[in-house]
Structures are given as structure tokens and as C-alpha cells.
What we know:
The complex is a heterodimer of chains A (380) and B (126).
Chain A: E1 5-12, H1 24-39, E2 48-51, H2 59-67, E3 73-75, H3 83-96, E4 102-109, H4 137-151, H5 155-169, H6 183-188, E5 191-193, E6 196-197, E7 207-215, H7 216-219, E8 227-236, H8 252-263, E9 272-275, H9 280-289, H10 298-301, E10 314-315, H11 320-323, H12 331-343, E11 356-363, E12 368-375
Helix pairs in contact in A: 1-2, 5-9
Chain B: H1 10-19, E1 24-28, E2 34-35, E3 50-54, E4 58-67, E5 75-82, E6 87-90, E7 92-93, E8 105-113, E9 116-123
Parallel strand pairs in B: 7-9
Antiparallel strand pairs in B: 1-2, 1-3, 4-5, 4-8, 5-6, 8-9
Amino acid sequence: xxxxxxxxxxxxxxxxxxxxxxxxxxxxxxxxxxxxxxxxxxxxxxxxxxxxxxxxxxxxxxxxxxxxxxxxxxxxxxxxxxxxxxxxxxxxxxxxxxxxxxxxxxxxxxxxxxxxxxxxxxxxxxxxxxxxxxxxxxxxxxxxxxxxxxxxxxxxxxxxxxxxxxxxxxxxxxxxxxxxxxxxxxxxxxxxxxxxxxxxxxxxxxxxxxxxxxxxxxxxxxxxxxxxxxxxxxxxxxxxxxxxxxxxxxxxxxxxxxxxxxxxxxxxxxxxxxxxxxxxxxxxxxxxxxxxxxxxxxxxxxxxxxxxxxxxxxxxxxxxxxxxxxxxxxxxxxxxxxxxxxxxxxxxxxxxxxxxxxxxxxxxxxxxxxxxxxxxxxxx
Amino acid sequence: xxxxxxxxxxxxxxxxxxxxxxxxxxxxxxxxxxxxxxxxxxxxxxxxxxxxxxxxxxxxxxxxxxxxxxxxxxxxxxxxxxxxxxxxxxxxxxxxxxxxxxxxxxxxxxxxxxxxxxxxxxxxxx
Lengths: 380, 126
């Protein structure tokens, strides 16, 4: 599948707080319209539809109806925030198999305008519910506690992740949070579920996005330089945190190698890493699990600004779920930034020579892990 | 007490154990894995013959968090590794939420909350 399919259009909807009355489908409409324009395609070119939602029980039906798209291939794979990275792989497979020609992956959420109420549609496990963990933060906090215990990871190192994300956000006009942030600010923030404070947690914002893919030959005739899907891999072991085999190692340790193998690249080839940072511990764990450093070394890896602008590795250059946008499920927005970095469209935050971008989606409570590798024409 | 009739729902059997002050779990006849939460198939080997056993109720804290909620005192949520080889979510009572330490030896007790029996733990030897 390597390089035979490409992303040809990407866009966000309006972001942040869109105001009362707007629905998630309205944001999907905005994003789709803009992404089609980015690609130079029309909605009637789309014959493959991919979506997931906490709002709509049958998301591709709702999206298809709203947009007036009548797909011949429809995929509503739902595994939390990583779903959309998974859709990327599924879309490539469908295009390769001739089941569709132009795939639209889209998502929208108005959770901030809805009153900051997180919409999860998540059922509580009867064997966890009596203990009243705060879903999902307490589950990530448990993982962080274990990581700190086993590897000596410190709260200051978690805070480095939030500070680096904010520094990138300040280079992205679309980022929700633009004010200066220090390690001390993160450490002093109100505790939510130890060791994670408020600023270790992602934003609660409105937002949506759309990604359009087609086969590589058609892609070359479209408006923007194609960004090729070089490889992708999925893995999941659990839904509930009490069932996660080892709280310090996620299934990214399998999805990553699967993606690298298909892509024919190694971790040292990656110029930009977009890692699903719902919480600060995520970035540290995924850097380890995806091979950027050894297990337990993530805290040191992110220290002294090494993943901030000007650091050793460009991570979450849009500002991440921590400072740019996190509309309930964030995975689709990771893809947008990776595509723009490879296209060279990122202005002040553009990474020089960004040829290979890694996208890593996470869903549930460190549950579903999906890795995708995108590359420029030069990587084929 | 004899292991309850296997035709009952796993959740019902687990509850009956708790109602009588005991912590039940399952062990796979085929691969000997300890299984929790209760189910009808072994998630390790796929075997469909699972035997109910009573845990000695001793274990160690594997992970811990102190949860803050508006207008509430912080409380802890832990994962406990039981000596028989299974893990469950619970809380440790009698210790300040932030003072629960990973590795602490804990012992099972039952509490009654909202008319439901709930498995909790206390620090061993206290």
C-alpha cells in the first residue's frame, strides 16, 4: 500500500468556541467545504465516507445526509480519538481495493459551546464505577503514577510537555491558548487527579476537521502537492484501564513498528511527530513506545525544551491537544498538521525539511493506538 | 461454600461472593490464568471452562491517584494486584488520598454502598 494513496485536501472548521446553536454537523460542513476547496474537488467526487462521533449514533449516515454525499463505501469505525487515524488506514485499503475513489474523513464537536460538558457516550465498567474515577483523566493519572514509580519520571517533566506544546501554540494563530506558560504555572495549577493538574490536561474546545484522500495518480493532478500515506498500523489490548496489561507501555509499541515496516522508514527518519497529547503523560509514553527513546527515558527526552521549537525533535507543532484544540476527539486534527508540515505550509512553525511526518492517535484510556506515516513525493 | 452454579451470570456470581464477604475471581481450567473481571471465556487462551475461586484478599497497590472534585474531599482510586495474579480497581480506606503509596500491602474488605456490596482495601497490619 506504500505511497499508492495520498492526502489531497485538509481543513479545520471554525475552532475554539463557535457559539450557541451550531451543531457538530455544521462544523463538519465547514471543514468539508474548505477541504474540498483545498483539494480542488467537489462533494460529488466523494464516494467513500469515514466518521466517528460521540454525538451521532450512526455518524456516517448523519454526515452523508447533511452533506448530500451518497457513498458507496462507508466506515464508522469507533475507537475513540484515534478513530480518524484508523480511518486513514481503512480509506487506503478501500481505495486500493477499488471500493471507493475519493475518501472523506470528517469530525466535528461543539463540546465547549455545549457548556464545556464532555460528551463521551462512554459506558462505565461495573467493576470500576463504584470507585468514581474521573473519566478519562483518572485513568491517565494511574498510568502516570506507575510511570513515575517505575522510572522516576517527575511532575516537572510532565510539565515540560505542556510548556513545549504552548511554545508551539504561540507560533500557530489557530491555537486556542496563546499566553505564556511556565513549568511553575503547570505545577501550581489546580490538581485534578494526582499527579495530573489542570494544565496537564487537554483543552475542552469546539472544533472539527476534514481530510480527503485519493489514489496517487489522481492526486498528482489536483491543486496541492500530494502527501503520501507511506504506512500505518493499529493495535489495541483493552477498553478499561484496569485491563491494561502494563500501565507504562501502550499498544503504540506495536502499532508503531507496524507503521514503520509498511512505510519502510525508521524512527530516525521522522522529521515531525504528531502525538495524541490528551494528557502530558501521553507524549512521554508515546515517545518511548514509538522508539524515539527507550522505555522510561521519556521524562529526560522532553526536558530542557527538547521537544519545543528549536529543540531536537519537532513534536506537536500545532500546539497539540494541550494548547491548540481538543474537540473531544482530537485524532483528525493531528493529520491536518502533519499534512501541512509535509506541504511546507506552516509558516512560523514550519519544520525545515519536513519530508516524513508521524501521526499517532490514541483513544479511550490509552486503549486504541494507531500510527500513520506520511511523506512527501521525495520519500517515494 | 461450593462454587455457585456456572449457569448464572458471571456478574451475579461475583455479587454473591461479595454479599457473603468474599472476593471471587475466576481461574481458567485450561491455562491456569487468574481472570478478573468475571466473564464466560478466558481472554488469555480462549478456554470456556472457568472455575470460580475465592481470593485470599491480599495484594499490593499497583497504581494510585487522588481524585479532586468540586465540593468534595479528595479520595483515592487504585489498581490492586492480588496475590492470585489478577488486578482490579478499588480504593484504599483509612489513608489520606494523597498518602496511598504504590507497593503498599493491602487487604480486602466489603463495604455496603447504595445497597450494593463494594470491594475495598485497607492497609495490611493496621
